[in-house]
Amino acid sequence: MELRPRDLALLLLSSGDLRPRQRARDQQADQAGLALKRRVLDRLAGLDPEPADLEGCLQKIVDEFGSPHGPTRAIAASVRDEWQAACSSPEWISQLLQDATRPSKESHRDVVETPFRRQA
Asked: What is the structure's pLDDT at 101?
């Protein structure tokens, strides 16, 4: 079976890479970038281009999403790079499959944040 851009998009959407990480800083920009990447991958999966047509399809997505083009163009370039990595490294696809089928760590742990400790 030949890998298609749609397959990679679905694997990336299912992997843990698009979940926000726990950080002690404002994550609004991170979340906006992750949301944009999800939109690009969703659209790529919906368009289901032939492998040879991936770059043209990504340009179409950039054009469809409109201004500002820079952030979408950067995400499209990263998706193109991930496509090239997937084509040259089948073991990475295996890793993505494992990540996609592994239960989320966030659903199995209780997070209690205590930023300050009282001293007696």
From this structure: 78
